[in-house]
Amino acid sequence: MKPGYSIGQPSSRILILFILTACLFAELSTTQAQDVFETATPIATASPGAYGTVALTPTVLATISGIARAYVSECRFENRVKNYDKAIANCTAAIELSPKFELAFANRAEAYNSKGEYDLAIADSNYAITLNPKDATPYVNRGIAYEEKGDYARAIADYDQAISLNPKDASAYDNRGNTYDLMGDLVHALADYDQAISLNPKNIIAYNNRGNAYREKGRNDLALADYNQAIYSYPNDPMAYNNRGLLYHSEGHDDLAMQDYTYAVAVDPTYAPSYFNRGVLYASQGQLVQAIEDYNETILLDPKHAPAYNYRGYAHYKQGQDDLAVADYSQAVALDPRYTLAYLDRGLAYKRQHKYDQALADYNQALAISPKLVAIYFFRGNLYADQGMTQLALADYHQAINIDPKYADVYWAIGLVYDSQHRYADALENYRQYVEIAGKKASETVVSRIGELEALLSATEDATQATTP
User: Fold this and answer.
1) What CATH number is given to the structural domain containing 445?
2) pLDDT by residue (tens digit) across 341-358?
3) Which of 70, 189, 331, 395 could make a disulfide contact with 18, Cβ separation 3.0–4.6 Å?
4) Is residue 443 in a domain?
């Protein structure tokens, strides 16, 4: 079935200009051009299908084709400048004039992908492939949509097909590399990025992607080299500054990271990732007001950015504004129902509001999604402990230790339970284990309690010995 999504049409002034341009391309005489202009202007400025009563002579058909191509040209331009709604409107107008114009479907699919409307992108790509199965572009567009939907097998298959049709398509290699990266296959990802750069040495996106892959491998030196190359090739590329900022932040160079994030939004004030990452950096420095401002800007630019809602929620939580925090966490899980961290964070807010049933439901949902995430067992154990359900709490704490024996805070929590039950020897053992793992970061409260328990147990032992015959 042919997709047909109507979004509106460009202005009449632009359409009339398209008509005149089409006449020139068709090399029509002045008289012919006047006839076409008088015939085609109502076609272009009226509602779709209005030309149904017009005699479709070869000249008129050529003009309609020219107008459709002009619309696609305008669609491509709007895609490049990120005006995706306008891009869709222009490609839709082209399709209404020429329902089997493959390039219009392919370019509209690109716009739908950019807007995150992946099902529509797949539908357009399917029809473009039906119209022209030898064009690699619709396979790349469909592969991107499948990749974003998490269907990596289909994405790889589409990129493979695109490469078989056009072995010099650098974007197909680059995007296939992204999918391999998401699958954790960095070997194949790096090979594809290498090939993309070999085919197009000025492909700054491939440099960025390869830099990200190197960063995942812990090769920060090679990652930095790729980010620097991208910046050298295109000094106003916000993506490269953003990625280099992430690298600097991971190495503890927060001043350099802040500079890169700030420069990224200076060269492109619409680049949401850098606002988000700068917000995360502000939050890590305790500057919650600035962090929230950056999260606000991220959401304004990208209303479907679930992490921005979640991190803004956590900033509100740190400010003691639990209702605002819960609202943001709820929006995050509405956008991404499998967002484990948002359920975990909302559970913490509910717990502080003494809404224990809601907190438990969120922790359970988080575990259903991520059953091996140790923090969930820890926080659910804390919830049980606060309600006096010590056996359930200990069960969760021990499950956390089974997953990660080096999770220090769990031993502290177990020690607190045993301490409350006057099982002082067991409490002391767990407190000591906590301090051993936490090292210099160990709480002074626990260190002090260890001293108290050692003294208490020593005195008890001495008293026992003194009363023994």
Assistant:
1) 1.25.40.10
2) 999 999 999 999 999 999
3) 70
4) yes
